[in-house]
Amino acid sequence: MNTNKRENIAAYSFLTPAFVLLGLFLIIPSILAIYYAFTDYYLLTPDKRQFIGIGNFIEIFKDPIFLQSLKNIIIFVVFVIPIQVGTALGLALLINKQRKGNMLFKVAYFSPVVLSLVVISVLWLYLLNPSEGLINTILVNIGLDPQPFLSSPDQAMLTIVLVSAWQGAGYQMLIFLAGLQNIPSSVYEAGKIDGVNKWQNFFHITLPLLKPTSILIMITTLISAFKLIIQPMVMTQGGPMNSTITPVYYIYQTGFSDRLIGYSSAMTVVFGIVIGIITLIQHKATKEDETQ
Amino acid sequence: MKKQGKTILEYTLLIILACIFIFPLLWMIFSSMKPEEAIYVDMSSIKALLPSLHPSDWLETYKTLFARFNVPQYILNSIVYAVVITVGSTVVNAMAGYAFAKFEFRGKKFLFGLLLILLIVPVETIIITQFTVVHTLGILNTRLAVVLPMMANMFFIYLFRNFFMAVPDEIIESVKLDGANYWTIFWKIMLPMSKPAVATVGTLSFIASWNDYLWPLMVLTDTEKFPLQVAITNINTTQPVYTNQVMAILTISTIPLIIVYIVAQKYILQGLGGSGTGIK
């Protein structure tokens, strides 16, 4: 009984720092977001805070900018996942071979990963400058038309897709590479005996065996893609014509810049639930992967 | 003959791809090592990806940048935030992981369940109410506000718990007989026996805090407390803006990450649960 009590006290003293911090910066903010979502809380007049039921939830779905942000993030996700994951897989397959200089290529493909999101955003802002950027200079030199990129509502989001894919592909390449190297060579040897050609090899052996890795990568990309904010914040401020505004960015703008805590919280709740559900699916998928 | 052709084709593809991936990084570094006018003069030739031909120019931009902005302060701030968060997050999460791995206590199931539920909360969406909490605590515009929310992390607690569970109970029992208390066991047995976990959590925490932008931007108003990431956008919008100086601050903020990625490369991948260490 005595040792039991001592163990209880010890355990709780080891847990206290983490749970106090989680409580302050994760649990309380989550509960507050749900609570504020049903109020008209304006940061500068906290005393006038009133309960307004589901008013905010009705308003946000009438808000053209919020709806636009949902549309934009879907465009981003739909393009960035195949482009980034496809590039990563392609690079991994190319590099998964003994050859001279392979290490150098691997380092080159991985190099954008070491740049922070702020750094890539600012850097590409200069590279993509419509009048004097390096990219348009190259395009003109090889006889193509210069492009407006970030200053065009049609091209801005796709430009952000490409920049993001360029930054993230190298990291996923390494994960694919680890997946490829986990495939036992005996599987391929068995295929060889059966007279399997290269393409059959790829589609019937490599790809199915990479499925768990691919699913894991796609879902984690999906989750982080949904939270896109830094690139549009630094590169376009959500423009031109709201073509790059994203939900998290709009939550930030309404809650932080406009101080409409209640309104912003309603979007937090809606969008947070969406991401939460996807994360749950991911946990399920990776659990199944583990038991395989 | 056919095989040789294929090899050449493969190498051409590999090299073109390598250029696409690495040229922005090279342009960034080398544009910081030449006079402003030269950047635009060099743009149409391969010289865009080379530093100035006069080595005396190489550090000129950096000198002017340091004269205009308090860059050493920003560097120091970033280092302080990153080190405090790295050490703090390692200790705090390891302690909680230890409790879950080696103690039987009342409410264990509940707290562990809570931890798993918290894993699905998308932190990025609750920034506004995190801000109101920091506001209420009265620590806005302090360095404490930058570091405290970055420390406790469910993934890291989970990771430590899994590692600590693998430490044999016999070892713990034998040092207990020698009179060691829980705290000594934690420092002298658990942590040293879980070096890969410590290295993984340390590396990932360092990178996350070094790259953090939005949160310090929200809670800090004094320029002299800015970390590098926030200083970058500040420098990029303070007139007059010079391309070479912006590239210089981008390069400065990237150097520590290059070192971390080289030194700790084998721990980086574990962030995605790619190697079955149990982080999910």
Automatic annotation (TrEMBL), chain A:
GO terms for biological process: transmembrane transport. Its main location: membrane. It is a multi-pass membrane protein. The keyword Cell membrane applies. Coiled coil: none annotated. Belongs to the binding-protein-dependent transport system permease family. This is Carbohydrate ABC transporter membrane protein 1 (CUT1 family). It comes from Paraliobacillus ryukyuensis.
From TrEMBL, chain B:
One of its GO terms (cellular component) is plasma membrane. GO terms for biological process: transmembrane transport. Pfam families: BPD_transp_1. Keywords: Cell membrane, Membrane, Transmembrane, Transmembrane helix, Transport. PANTHER family: ABC TRANSPORTER PERMEASE PROTEIN MG189-RELATED, ABC TRANSPORTER PERMEASE PROTEIN MG189-RELATED-RELATED. The keyword Glycosyltransferase does not apply. Belongs to the binding-protein-dependent transport system permease family. The keyword Transmembrane applies. It is a multi-pass membrane protein. Its main location: membrane. This is Carbohydrate ABC transporter membrane protein 2 (CUT1 family). PROSITE patterns: ABC_TM1. The chain crosses the membrane at residues 12-30, 74-98, 110-132, 144-164, 185-210, 246-264. Residues 75-264 form the ABC transmembrane type-1 domain. It is found in: Cell membrane. Coiled coil: none annotated.
